């Protein structure tokens, strides 16, 4: 046995400490194996048998936040579209449910099942880039990060991105992932064609002109219409963004909301609860040169030591003394956000940022016209209820679209997201805060983010979405036995 192989086996025999797992996840979130671990056992890289023989058994699937998990009967990693069909047929014959698990970044149970899990991580090839038409064809398991890297080589880029790029493209569009910019729609609006493998064994090519109803349903289809094995995405010429981040009071932001919203191509703000402080972020396309990168030591001190490790330690202490939270919010605003900052870089490096450590999150989309009212009610809730809540509350915007289950369907939307961190994976009280937040959002005609926790059911969604019944009819046509269902899908579509 070689020395290196012996060392690898020895290391694999040791339990991984949670802090080490955290480092692996934060340094390389493309390491899918770390999302498929049993917390109390060693974390070996799963050895997946050929799909035609047998799926992997005795595996625990866990999301990145470690708040949802499942133990499926079998786990598959198909390498071809034909393999995907074999897995679907295998589940159909056994009367098993089948869900697709991406990179584990959905903080609810949308991807979980006790029957069969399928990962597209081996179907992650970029098949074609058309520089003239500015389009890319990619398999469903391709991550957005991969897309960013490959598109940059061809002087192309995605028009808008969310806060992270670790998700698979199929998973991201299926749950309504979005960025910010009142003239930019959710990520799925950039899909011009997709290939869907249905429960009945059909391979459907869908677009605005080919089976358009299925296309509009499947772009944000929650993974319950079939498996998206391929997508064609409309891109644009590669661009740099000039981003300005500056402190402002919440009242000044709310008093000038419309002016701010139209002041930049991409605009969002973060409010620090228990203070009157906001961070306003604007970004526009630019021909300016990239700004110099800060020194490694400076960046590590601010971003990792202060902005990550010390913050996690402080929030951990606050789990024993919650009254510390307002002090922490004020302190970290002063330390890290109380001065104007400017940055020019490649678009994805400006759109994306570090979402720090494990967390509970909730996010809703409301009609844009209700933004000010929503923020005032949320501030009043926090000030009068005795709640102690973490920073930040993030506010973003998207244009209207015509994707049937998009939270921005038919209206310009304001997306409000709240957060409660889990320092060192320690649970924190969050349910009452989230319940009260959801009540405010529902009263303002809100729609929850599909990949984040919420308590809504089918009867409520039928009132939120004008095409909801048509979506369900297409589901019955494509998946009459509800193979692509689970506890979450049962609630939101049939509950």
From TrEMBL:
Entries under PANTHER family matching the protein: L-GULONOLACTONE OXIDASE
GO biological process, one term: L-ascorbic acid biosynthetic process
Name of the protein: L-gulonolactone oxidase
Enzyme nomenclature, EC number: 1.1.3.8
Cofactor(s) essential for the protein: FAD
Topology class, membrane: Single-pass membrane protein
Family stated for the protein in its record: Belongs to the oxygen-dependent FAD-linked oxidoreductase family.
Organism of this sequence: Galdieria sulphuraria (Red alga)
Domain FAD-binding PCMH-type, first and last residues per copy: 68-238
Catalytic activity: L-gulono-1,4-lactone + O2 = L-ascorbate + H2O2 + H(+)
Keywords linked to the UniProt accession: Ascorbate biosynthesis, Endoplasmic reticulum, FAD, Flavoprotein, Membrane, Microsome, Oxidoreductase, Transmembrane, Transmembrane helix
Oxidoreductase among keywords: yes
GO cellular-component term (any): endoplasmic reticulum membrane
Pathway: Cofactor biosynthesis; L-ascorbate biosynthesis via UDP-alpha-D-glucuronate pathway; L-ascorbate from UDP-alpha-D-glucuronate: step 4/4
Signal sequence, renumbered to the chain: none
Listed GO MF terms: D-arabinono-1,4-lactone oxidase activity; FAD binding; L-gulonolactone oxidase activity
Function: Oxidizes L-gulono-1,4-lactone to hydrogen peroxide and L-xylo-hexulonolactone which spontaneously isomerizes to L-ascorbate.
Enzyme class: oxidoreductase
PROSITE patterns the UniProt entry points to: FAD_PCMH, OX2_COVAL_FAD
Classification of source organism: Eukaryota, Rhodophyta, Bangiophyceae, Galdieriales, Galdieriaceae
Tree of life domain: Eukaryota
């Amino acid at each position: 046995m070689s020395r290196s192989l012996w060392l690898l086996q020895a290391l694999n025999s040791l339990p991984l400490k949670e802090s080490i797992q955290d480092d692996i996840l934060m340094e390389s979130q493309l390491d899918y194996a770390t999302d498929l671990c049993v917390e109390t056992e060693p974390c070996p890289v799963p050895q997946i048998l050929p799909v035609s023989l047998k799926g992997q058994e005795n595996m625990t699937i866990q999301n990145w936040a470690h708040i949802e998990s499942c133990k499926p009967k079998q786990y598959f990693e198909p390498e071809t579209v034909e393999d995907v069909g074999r897995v679907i047929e295998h589940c159909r014959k056994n009367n098993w449910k089948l869900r697709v698990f991406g990179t584990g970044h959905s903080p609810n149970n949308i991807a979980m099942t006790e029957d069969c899990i399928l990962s597209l991580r081996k179907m992650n090839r970029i098949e074609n880039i058309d520089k003239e038409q500015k389009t890319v064809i990619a398999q469903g398991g391709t991550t957005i990060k991969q897309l960013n890297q490959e598109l940059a080589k061809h002087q192309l880029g995605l028009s808008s991105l969310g806060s992270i790029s670790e998700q698979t493209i199929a998973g991201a569009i299926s749950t309504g992932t979005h960025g910010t910019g009142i003239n930019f729609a959710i990520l799925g609006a950039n899909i011009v064609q997709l290939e869907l493998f249905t429960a009945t064994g059909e391979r459907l090519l869908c677009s605005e002109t080919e089976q358009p109803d299925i296309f509009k349903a499947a772009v944000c289809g929650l993974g319950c219409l079939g498996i998206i094995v391929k997508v064609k995405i409309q891109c644009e010429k590669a661009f740099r963004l000039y981003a300005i981040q500056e402190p402002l009071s919440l009242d000044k932001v709310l008093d000038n909301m419309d002016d701010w919203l139209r002041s930049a191509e991409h605009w969002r703000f973060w409010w620090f609860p228990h203070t009157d402080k906001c961070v306003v972020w604007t970004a526009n396309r630019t021909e300016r040169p990239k700004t110099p990168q800060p020194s490694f030591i400076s960046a590590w001190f601010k971003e990792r030591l202060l902005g990550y490790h010390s913050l996690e330690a402080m929030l951990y202490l606050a789990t024993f003394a919650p009254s510390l939270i307002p002090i922490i919010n004020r302190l970290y605003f002063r330390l890290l956000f109380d001065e104007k900052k400017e940055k020019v870089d490649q678009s994805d490096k400006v759109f994306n940022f570090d979402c720090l450590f494990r967390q509970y999150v909730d996010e809703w989309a409301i009609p844009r016209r209700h933004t000010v009212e929503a923020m005032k009610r949320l501030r009043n809730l926090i000030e009068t209820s005795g709640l102690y809540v973490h920073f930040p509350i993030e506010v973003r915007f998207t244009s209207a679209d015509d994707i049937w289950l998009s939270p921005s369907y038919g209206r310009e939307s304001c997306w409000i997201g709240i957060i409660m961190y889990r320092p060192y994976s320690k649970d924190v009280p969050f349910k009452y805060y989230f319940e009260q937040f959801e009540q405010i959002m529902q009263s303002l005609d809100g729609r929850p983010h599909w990949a984040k926790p919420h308590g809504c059911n089918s009867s409520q969604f039928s009132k939120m979405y004008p095409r909801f019944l048509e979506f369900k009819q297409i589901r019955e046509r494509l998946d009459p036995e509800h193979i692509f269902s689970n506890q979450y899908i049962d609630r939101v579509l049939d509950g």
